[in-house]
Design goal:
By secondary structure, the protein is of the alpha+beta class. It is built from two helices and eight strands; from the N terminus they run ββαβββββαβ. The model has no long low-confidence stretch (mean pLDDT 98).
């Protein structure tokens, strides 16, 4: 059975709901395990002393009709260096799965084999990303919460103007 994990989201300190994901551990086992463990926080601190945990991490980038992005557990703004349960950036897996639907959970990266903790959730298909990002899972419940996040006002650099935060995360 595929693991199921959740992110509880708050906007401006008000809870807006839970997003539940099914992880593709059959086709992307290392990437799935990294995301799962970052949801539970079970691995403690990274080698750079940052919590390996999505709880209290911001969603730092929102691009309407494209995606929402979070998971920077280092700096919280998308500029943090890759962190993972493997001690830094790790290799791509299963780049054959297309980015062909809304609600796909994908790893953000800075090029080949630079996966870490940052992720994005698609708001619609994004075929221009095919072969460039590991699709690690999909939303199975709570896509309405993702859509609410997509409506948050952003600045010129697509950063939310109010805090959008993973208030809790874990495994089901």
């Amino acid at each position: 059975m595929r693991p199921r994990v959740f992110l509880d989201i708050s906007v401006n300190q008000h809870p807006i709901g839970r997003v539940i994901f099914e992880l593709f551990n059959d086709t992307a086992p290392r990437t799935s395990e990294n995301f799962r463990a970052l949801c539970t926080g079970e691995k403690g601190l990274s080698h750079t002393e940052h919590p390996l945990y999505y709880k209290n991490s911001p969603l730092h980038r929102i691009i309407k009709d494209f995606m929402i992005q979070g998971g920077d557990i280092v700096k919280g703004n998308g500029t943090g260096s890759p962190e993972s349960i493997y001690g830094g950036a790790f290799e791509d897996e299963d780049l054959e799965r297309p980015v062909d639907a809304e609600g796909l959970l994908c790893m953000a990266n800075k090029g080949p084999d630079t996966n870490g903790s940052q992720y994005f959730i698609t708001l619609k298909e994004a075929p221009h990303l095919n072969g460039k990002h590991v699709v690690v899972g999909r939303v199975i419940r709570g896509f309405d919460v993702v859509q609410k996040v997509a409506e948050v006002e952003v600045d010129a650099k697509f950063r939310p103007v109010v805090p959008v935060v993973v208030s809790n995360s874990g495994e089901l």
